[in-house]
Amino acid sequence: MGWLARAVKGVLVAFFKTQGWTVEGTAPTPRKFVVIAAPHTSNWDFVYFMGATDALNLNLSFMGKDSLFRWPFGGIMRDLGGIPVDRSKNNDAVSAMIAEFGRRDEFMLTIAPEGSRNRAGKWKTGFYHIAMGAKVPMVCGMMDYKRKVVGLGPAIMPSGDYEKDMAELARFYAACTPKYPDKATFQPGDLD
């Protein structure tokens, strides 16, 4: 990690500590898993979760639209764990991420299945297919604005029964209050 990324992360950690948030949960071992970032209704979710990574002992990676990786922010985005994705083309991001899990000894990939900070209607399924293909658990990452808690919930190994696994995830996330509850997508009927 470059000096600028370390400085940015240091600022985020320091800011997080001043905001009165607490941290819950621990990362599973082995340290290869998909972190589900939900509910995702605000840019503050990223700020607070990145601020909590030291306390959670996480070295996260995340996918982002390729426009975020252009100058002047490209280097720092990569240093912070970013992996650019070209949304204008029909790229096979799922296969690319499965291969990335195969190449690395440690890989904690964070994905916001809502794909948007606005009410999505249905979660995108890529996170599930990546976890299934890589044979790694899905870890419930959460932001609960009501309790001011950020952290990790249960690790759920995908069973191949998508509806059953999604119902289990929805039960966990139903107890988390997002910054903007009207924008959240985490009810069982909302998941495709």
Q: Radius of gyration, Cα only, in angstroms?
A: 16 Å
User: Structurally, how many domains make up the residues?
Assistant: 1
Largest sheet: 7 strands, mixed
Instruction: Please state the average pLDDT score.
Output: 88
The number of E-state strands comes to 7
Number of helices: 6
Topology as H/E string?
A: HEEHEHEHEHEEH
What gross morphology would you assign?
Answer: globular
Span of the ends, CA to CA: 37 Å
Helix content: 25-40%
Q: Bin the strand percentage.
A: 15-25%
Low-pLDDT segments: 187-192
Order of neighbouring strands in the sheet with most strands: 1-7-6-2-5-3-4
Secondary-structure content class: alpha/beta
What characteristics describe this protein?
7-stranded mixed beta sheet; disordered C terminus; globular; 192 residues; 6 helices
Structure described in brief:
This protein has 192 residues and is an alpha/beta fold. 35% of the residues lie in helices and 20% in strands.
Describe this structure in words.
The protein has 192 residues and is of the alpha/beta class. The termini are far apart.
How does the SSE layout of this entry go?
Elements: H1 3-18, E1 22-24, E2 32-37, H2 44-56, E3 60-65, H3 74-79, E4 82-85, H4 93-103, E5 107-111, H5 126-134, E6 138-144, E7 149-156, H6 162-173
Parallel strand pairs: 1-7, 2-5, 2-6, 3-4, 3-5
Antiparallel strand pairs: 6-7
Helix pairs in contact: 1-2, 4-5
